[in-house]
Amino acid sequence: MSGSISVDFVGHQFSETAEIVLADIKISVKAGELVSLIGRSGCGKSTLLHIISGLLAPASGCVRIDGKTVTKPSAKWNMMFQKASLFPWMTVQENVGLGLKFAGASKGQIAQKTDELLELVGLKDKAQDSSQSLSGGQQQRVALARSLATSPSVLLLDEPFSALDTFTRSALQQDVAAICKQKGITMVLVTHDIDEAVMMSDRVFVMDQNPGRIIDEIKVDIAWPRKHMSQNFQRIREDLLTAFKGTEKTESFRSLDGGRYTADSSAA
Amino acid sequence: MSQVASGAEIVEGPRLSARSVVSEFLSKYGYPLVGIMILLAVWWFGGWLIASDDDLSAFADFAPGPTFAALIDLIRSGDLTQTIISSLFRVGAGLLWGFVIGVPVGILIGYVLVAMRVANVPFQFLRMISPLAWMPIAVLAFETWDSAIIFLIVMATVWPIMFSTSHGVKRIDPSWFKVAKNLGASGTQMVHQIIMPAIMSDVMAGVRLAVGVAWVVLVPAEYLGVTSGLGYAINDARDTLAYDTLAAIVLVIGVIGYLLDTVCGVLVSRFNWHQND
Q: Which residues in chain A are contacts of B181 at CB distance < 8 A?
């Protein structure tokens, strides 16, 4: 199984005089492992993900995937963003097949793979639709299928569910985690949603800012598929909340998980 | 009660749809037709005024009657086709060069901020010079009259195409570049699969503007030494005092201009993927 990631003393600042965004980040992720980077906005978690993807070069240190240093983006480790960013002039199927088209696959191969993936994300009947006619959740599913089309060993998720409504988000969280587990894909999720991190990962890295760094690492030893209100879930959630109390700006705590913290705790 | 209501519905149904068909027909053909009738009426009235004034009666052939008669003669003699082809060739060549220069430069200044900053002042400066002002220089610089005229049309078409293109590039969602790079797009694939389709409707909007300007610039440009084309035909008709032919050519210029614009409009919407535009 491939897709192991090692982040070695990565530091970053956008210019020599700018403040340090990331300082000496060291993480290692096993192939097929699902991990989350969680922290407040501005802690550099998204920057770190961009560096892992090769879309951004780090100021110092390096990222290795399967032992090879990442120097540029590759379809072998695909990124999903908060916006689905589908190409509006293409049909759903053309969007999903784009990576294969770039790689020079034949029409037959593309059709077969896109059919299979649209089936997987539950949008087979939308194949010929315009991508603009889809709902937000459906668009994100197409983006997921598009990311999976090139059979990546790593999936990098930059808060891809944060713009979706609760039900859609919850369904996608479970589906993405299940697909990664089933296909043995390594997942790195960036999120500010504690529940999402617990829901989807084997390990959670807690980040703090000024400079962006990892302050804690929590193992999530809950069996798959996970349920929100299980005892284990609550326990790990509490651990993460405690880790967070150490980070800056505690008063704006609630914004961390989109305001759902209060609602959830009263339900529990 | 309910029977009465349903009965009323049955009567109402077809009447309503007939009304909507009528209103659709009106908005598609009726209103434009009224506009054309008004224009013809004004033209006819102007002709009548000229004809009834003794000092101006030599120009009476500008009126619709003689004009349409001259138009039919022009079409029958086959001269008109050759005239139109010459003019369309020049406009087409000018547009092609405007496109070939304007699109790549537009992409460059839209994509590279430094290029935009460097190019902005000179380009805005050049853009504001009437293409016809280049006429003496064009005559000096080019060997044939045809190339001089095509140069003038290029000077008219390159700016709208260039600025629309760069506007389109600036409107590209930056995340599309990220996604495409991530999916393994090479430089050429990025241009062909992402940038071109993304900006095509803006480019076509620029072409539409360019066609309008080119068609306007063409006629005076063809007053230059050439012996073919619509501009030449107008000049020739004036020199031979054939005012009916002159008016017929003006009519042809208007009709072709309208048709060209319509074709461009169709192309703009053909390439348009913006949902709410």
A: 55, 73
From A75, A85, A132, residue closest to B173, measured CB to CB: A85
Same domain assignment for residues B163 and B28: no
Q: Which residue from B183, B273, B275 is facing A75, i.e. has the nearest CB?
A: B183
- Range of B6's domain? 2-52
Is the CB of A78 less than 8 angstroms away from the CB of B186?
A: no
Q: Give chain B positions within 8 Å (CB) of A79.
A: 178-179, 182
- Lowest mean pLDDT segment, chosen from A112-116, A161-165, B43-47, B65-69: A161-165
Rounded CA separation B177/B180 (Å): 5
Residues 130-149, chain A: which have Cβ within 8 Å of B?
Answer: 132, 146
DSSP A212-259: BEEEEEEE---PSSP-TTSHHHHHHHHHHHHHHHTSS-GGGGGGGGTT
- As given in the structure block, the two tokens for residue B19 are 């009304």
CA nearest to B181 within chain A: A73
Give the C-alpha separation, A56 to A222, whole Å.
Answer: 34
Quick one: pLDDT at residue A230? 77
Q: Are residues B127 and B235 in the same domain?
A: yes
> How many Cα atoms occupy the beta-carbon half-sphere of A89 within 13 Å?
18
C-beta atoms of A102 and B189 within 8 A: yes
Please choose, from the candidates B213, B208, B187, the residue with its C-alpha nearest in 3D space to the C-alpha of residue B107. Answer: B187
CA distance A149 to chain B (A): 9
What is the percent of chain B where pLDDT is above 70? 93
Question: Residue A22: which of A56, A60, A67 has the closest Cα?
Answer: A60
Residue A248 is predicted with a pLDDT of 60
Mutate to test the interface with A, among B183, B273, B274 (most CBs of A within 10 A): B183
| Residue B27 DSSP class | I
Averaged confidence pLDDT in chain A: 82
Question: What's the number of domains chain B is made of?
Answer: 2
* Partner-chain contact A85 B179, CB within 8 Å: yes
Contact A43, A243 (CB under 8 A): no
Q: Does the beta-carbon distance from A53 to B182 stay under 8 Å? A: yes
Q: Which residues of A touch B189 (CB under 8 A)?
A: 102
In CATH terms, the fold of domain A5-76+153-267 is: Rossmann fold (3.40.50)
Instruction: Give every CB contact of residue B237 below 8 A, 6+ residues apart in sequence.
Output: B243, B245, B246, B249
Its ipTM equals 0.77
Q: Is the peptide bond before A211 cis (omega within 30 degrees of 0)?
A: yes
pLDDT at position B90, please?
A: 93
